[in-house]
Design brief:
The chain has a domain of 72 residues. It has 6 helices and no strands. The longest helix has 19 residues. The termini are far apart.
């Protein structure tokens, strides 16, 4: 029974981790808001998709959620100069969600 419980736990956590694994590594400080970076309202996800799934200066300059702050300012990279594999820029405690117009 312990083996079956361990197996079920492994499967459930593996599936859950796959559900949460995603594109947050493709935007600066994406792990701060995790999946909500794109899946709060969907506006940032749409703009990210239109940018070819790449963090660009043009995507950083947009204000996907219409709150008056650019996506880049909200994610700590106002000029869009960050690249995948580099350390996250800025202070993670100042990161806000580019998909949430209320934060």
């Amino acid at each position: 029974m312990k083996t079956l419980s361990a197996f079920v736990f492994f499967i459930v956590t593996s599936v859950a981790s796959l559900a949460f694994w995603g594109y947050e590594e493709f935007v600066p400080n994406g792990a701060v808001n995790s999946c909500n970076t794109c899946h709060y309202s969907g506006a940032f996800a749409d703009d990210f998709r239109e940018a070819g799934g790449q963090w660009t200066a043009a995507l950083a300059a947009l204000d996907s959620n219409g709150d008056g702050a650019s996506n880049g300012a909200e994610l700590g990279d106002p000029f869009g100069s960050w690249a995948v594999g580099r350390p996250d820029p800025g202070d993670p405690f100042r990161v806000t969600n580019p998909d949430d117009g209320e934060d």
